């Protein structure tokens, strides 16, 4: 019996060794997950190396999810001035040299602004006289003459200032110079202290090798018109919004005698902040409407308004003032208009609203 048990034991042992040998020589198969929950050790599952690329293999989108949709508006972006429209194949504009050429240019811009108004507003100001005051004061305004007829006025000083802004900004834009800063540092301190100072661009601010460039003159012409469009879009708005009380669609005359404008100024109302904000809003809409109507010519944007308001903010800063201190400034524009730094955000916001309502 002992020999039989020994033989059986030996036979079973040999069989077990044979089975183990067969298992070790058979190719390894990936382990299957058992339904009973007895999972193989983590280090042996899976036996093939895990793919090196993450799933999915394309990078995860960088934009927040969802990227679009009415319930997920894009975040508000800080306002940036509209870039200058791309150049188009049009002839270069002639330079605006001398006060007579600048006055004539303003008449043309004013005509475009009036033509762009809705008929009801256009009827109130069509044919409105434009008069020029031959003084170095930097000012533009809307008023009523002694007969109660509306008019618009500009001083030679403001035309000089707009010309200087346009020429320096055009030079800096085209050639990467800092001529506007040089002009501001040279001229604006005097303007902030005296009403007899002149805003004219001094000789030598524009480098002599860049001054004659026809592209520079043409770009300055475009910017000159763009600044005028904002300035007189605002002043026109005072009339057709009823702030002056004298623009009623009556027959227009020639306007007050320029030599008597100082007396006529006594009838120019001091507009409150609400009226000024309303004129800025309506005026920038007017300027942008007129600018869009000019295509394929250069299209006016709010850039001209930002340039002009920053110019007056620089004068006010150099004069040590701000807010109520504007009333002490010798610059008439600052006396009759609110702090320019409070107006810039209005212009920016209204321009963005206009663009949302007028897609290209």
Structure commentary:
Helix content is 48%, strand content 4%. The chain has helices at residues 2-25, 99-115, 119-125, 156-175, 179-191, 214-240, 261-264, 273-293, 303-318, 332-336, 340-357; strands at residues 130-133, 140-144, 150-155. Strands 1-3-2 form a three-stranded mixed β-sheet. A hairpin with a 5-residue loop joins strand 2 (140-144) and strand 3 (150-155). Helix 4 (156-175) packs across helix 6 and helix 6 packs across helix 8.
SSE topology:
Layout lengths: L1 H24 L73 H17 L3 H7 L4 E4 L6 E5 L5 E6 H20 L3 H13 L22 H27 L20 H4 L8 H21 L9 H16 L13 H5 L3 H18 L3
Parallel strand pairs: 1-3
Antiparallel strand pairs: 2-3
Helix pairs in contact: 2-6, 2-8, 4-6, 5-9, 6-8, 6-9, 8-11, 9-11
What would the keywords be for this entry?
single chain; three-stranded mixed sheet; mainly alpha; 3 strands; globular; 360 residues
What does this entry show, briefly?
The chain has 360 residues and is mostly helical. It is built from eleven helices and three strands.
Approximate helicity band: 40-55%
Distance between the termini: 107 Å
Biggest beta sheet attributes: 3 strands, mixed
**Helix- and strand-based class?**
mainly alpha
What spatial order of strands do you see in the largest sheet? 1-3-2
Give the overall form.
Answer: globular
Along the chain, the helix and strand elements come as HHHEEEHHHHHHHH
- Beta-strand portion reads under 5%
Low-confidence stretches: 1-78
Number of discrete helical segments? 11
Return the average pLDDT rounded to an integer. 77
Number of strands: 3
Radius of gyration: 38 Å
